[in-house]
Recover the amino acids of this structure.
């Protein structure tokens, strides 16, 4: 009888981390890694930074080469999409109709870029989520200066605006909120970033996009296949001239293929504290919304560090569950180990300290803990000209997050320990003060 594989759906940072951890933790059975893109697993953060700028080529983004993947003995299915999962039997259906009967499944399908009505099919309108997206936009930004309108003033929009300005393009950054990245970093840090973008020549516009103008406006609809963007229309009637448009309006978890009612796919794949969505089914990375044991509520992070850490945690906990299943089904006289030789272990709750960073011009922003959704933010601007700042974020009387802009690495590292677990606000303030003074 052929051993059933563990399947990892998503050849992403989280998926790769899970696959490597499964081997490292002792899984010797078949291991399938499924990715809907044709590329080997690659790093996404540089897409809106070094790759878009042209400083890096795609090869530098690879997380592993083919030779480095060989020891994992993977059944690697690139350019393949999972279209369904039967939770009770742990059976995956792939886009070619193949069905995989699995011992366990780890879902690491990430997120997909959101778009706007009427944007599809217009030449010059881009999203930025995949390697192919980034290369397409980079190609349009090469050469002569263009008028780029970026819709969305969150992290992605701000990073892309910084790159485009450094490349010499005319950039307009449009957001529904007036302050860039305010939801992620708060008002005062966002205002500091706005000052830098304006100083660099970015035009900041507040408004909602209501449509797009193209070269086909007023033409026979039968001949509009090659319509090129000409402007972005706002709800107040303003028209923003554009040669290129980047839609950076957020993302949606890639869960549309998970129709089994045993799964909760509200804002990602709902998991328990062990990253389990159902028996034998785990999730990791941007797609996973799990019960954070420290913060006491379900959270979902689209952060690079979390992808790797959660991929490893999901792999470890899945193997622990499979070992327990093998023990329960084995005769009393037979000891407990799966046929593939996986060693015994216990599941552990996944309780990371969230971390994210953003590079914009010469500013490096780093944050630990929870900065979004704070009900209290205290920001200290250390040097307005240099855009150096420190911010503490609170929720329910406790400090839950901290952010540093332009601080030395030693001081930034010291901040992590302060909010590894929620602290009373005043105690956290004192510890932040001591940590930065010591740096």
């Amino acid at each position: 009888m052929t051993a059933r594989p563990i399947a990892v759906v998503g050849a992403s940072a989280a998926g790769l981390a899970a696959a490597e951890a499964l081997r490292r933790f002792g899984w010797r059975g078949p291991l399938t890694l499924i990715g809907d893109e044709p590329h080997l697993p690659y790093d996404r953060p540089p897409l809106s930074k070094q790759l878009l700028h042209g400083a890096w080529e795609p090869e530098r983004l690879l997380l592993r080469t083919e030779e480095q993947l060989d020891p994992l003995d993977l059944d690697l299915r690139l350019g393949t999409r999972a279209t369904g999962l039967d939770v009770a039997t742990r059976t995956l259906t792939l886009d070619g109709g193949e069905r995989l009967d699995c011992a366990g499944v780890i879902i690491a399908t990430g997120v997909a870029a959101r778009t706007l009505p009427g944007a599809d099919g217009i030449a010059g309108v881009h999203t930025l989520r995949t390697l192919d997206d980034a290369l397409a936009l980079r190609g349009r930004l090469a050469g002569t200066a263009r008028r780029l309108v970026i819709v969305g003033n969150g992290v992605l929009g701000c990073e892309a605006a910084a790159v485009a300005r450094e490349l010499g393009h005319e950039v307009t950054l449009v957001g529904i909120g007036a302050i860039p990245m305010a939801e992620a970093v708060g008002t005062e840090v966002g205002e500091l970033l706005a000052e830098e973008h304006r100083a660099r020549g970015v035009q900041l516009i507040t408004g909602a996009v209501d449509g797009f103008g193209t070269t086909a406006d007023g033409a026979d609809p039968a001949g509009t296949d090659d319509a090129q963007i000409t402007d972005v229309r706002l709800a107040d009637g303003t028209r923003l001239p554009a040669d290129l448009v980047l839609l950076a309006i957020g993302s949606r978890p890639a869960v549309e293929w998970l129709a089994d009612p045993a799964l909760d796919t509200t804002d990602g794949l709902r998991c328990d504290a062990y990253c389990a969505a159902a028996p034998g089914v785990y999730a990791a990375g941007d797609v996973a919304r799990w019960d954070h044991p420290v913060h006491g509520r379900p959270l979902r992070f689209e952060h690079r560090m979390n992808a790797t850490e959660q991929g490893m945690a999901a792999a470890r906990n899945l193997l622990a569950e499979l070992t327990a299943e093998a023990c329960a089904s084995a005769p009393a006289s037979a000891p407990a180990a799966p046929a593939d030789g996986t060693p015994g272990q216990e599941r552990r709750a996944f309780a990371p300290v969230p971390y994210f960073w953003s590079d914009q011009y010469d500013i490096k922003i780093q944050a630990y803990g929870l900065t979004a959704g704070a009900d209290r933010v205290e920001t200290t601007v250390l040097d307005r000209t240099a855009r150096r700042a420190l911010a503490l974020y609170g929720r329910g009387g406790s400090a839950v997050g901290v952010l540093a802009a332009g601080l030395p690495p030693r001081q930034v590292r010291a901040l992590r320990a302060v909010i590894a677990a929620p602290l009373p606000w005043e105690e956290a303030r004192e510890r932040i003060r001591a940590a930065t003074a010591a740096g």
